[in-house]
Amino acid sequence: MDLALSTCWNASRHREGYAMIEEIREMGFKSVELGHNLRFSLWPGVLKAVKDNRIRVHSLHNFCPVPIEVQRPSPDCYEFTASTSSERNAAIKGTIHTLEKASEVGASAVVLHLGSYLRKNHLTEKLVHHWKMRSLYTKKNASERVNYLLQRKKATPLIQDRLKQCLDPILKKAETLRLRIGVEFRSRLEEYPHADEFEGLFRDYAGSPLGYWHDFGHAAKMDLLGLIDHLEFLKSQSNRIIGAHLQDFSPPQNDHLALGQGSLPLDELHALLPEKSIKVLELGPRVRKEKIIENLQKWQK
């Protein structure tokens, strides 16, 4: 599987989808992931580029294209775990639309965020602050974390029920279109699922198109905050990995960096990805083009 580049890097700078794809091709990439910030106005050009055999699309990141009623692109504009049925229905509708678009361009997978527990809880930010102050492992902070996890455990049955209402029709549609669904590892403790919840999630949906999507930057942040062991967690998901977002990470939360710009042991981590899994370079829009070309050339060697 060749290395793809996510259009998150350049979608915001283009008014025409064909030109966006051509910029990526000129850098040496033959494949892309269509990112969650791909505006609907870019879609016709992307579709033409695919039909002209200018590019291959390996995956789409929900919601893609951005729903026309959404003013600011966000993969969390609608959540499957939302308290209102109207938002959950919008999440189902938007995701099924993404699946249909994925099928239209010949992609094999769609990446999803599943939702969150307590939207107004800022525990992750507090943990980052304490890491900076070197006070992450004080008794007070440990107590706060335990209390949050207890609240979360009580809320889990309700969250899982809401999620099932949404995932059932989505997975049925994915199966019909022969698409895989990758549940992305997230960068906040408040989001679902956390590391210890993946096992139960995949047990509940055994035999479905649901699989795991690893994000190197997100996992690195959770490792930094003492919430997972990055290497061991990646090993534990090896038989479920559909794909991964490749990037580097610099403490405490600078992700979406070009490979080699951060502190991750990339060779050791990348070696754990299955050979046939989808590999997507997901970089921030400020990463220089020359650095991306360098990353691609090193990957090819």
Please name the defining characteristics of this protein:
301 residues; alpha/beta; TIM Barrel; 10 helices; 15% strand; globular
Number of domains: 1
* Strand adjacency order, main sheet: 1-2-3-4-5-6-7-10
CATH class descriptor name: Alpha Beta
Give the CATH topology.
TIM Barrel
Instruction: Evaluate the radius of gyration.
Output: 19 Å
| Series of H and E elements | EHEHEHEHHEHEHHEEEHEH
Q: Note the total helix count.
A: 10
CATH homologous group name: Divalent-metal-dependent TIM barrel enzymes
Strand content: 15-25%
Number of strands: 10
Describe the structure.
The protein is α/β, with parallel strands linked by helices and 301 residues long. The protein has one domain (3-300): Divalent-metal-dependent TIM barrel enzymes (TIM Barrel). Helix content is 43%, strand content 15%. It is built from ten helices and ten strands. It has helices at residues 17-26, 43-51, 85-104, 123-132, 139-177, 198-204, 216-224, 230-236, 266-270, 289-300, and strands at 3-6, 31-34, 56-61, 109-112, 180-184, 210-215, 241-246, 248-250, 254-257, 278-281. The protein has an eight-stranded parallel barrel with strand order 1-2-3-4-5-6-7-10, surrounded by five helices. A two-stranded antiparallel ribbon has the order 8-9. α1 crosses α2 (43-51) and α3 (85-104) packs across α5 (139-177). The longest helix is centred in the middle third of the chain and has 39 residues, at 139-177. The chain is globular. 39% of the residues are buried. The model has no long low-confidence stretch (mean pLDDT 93).
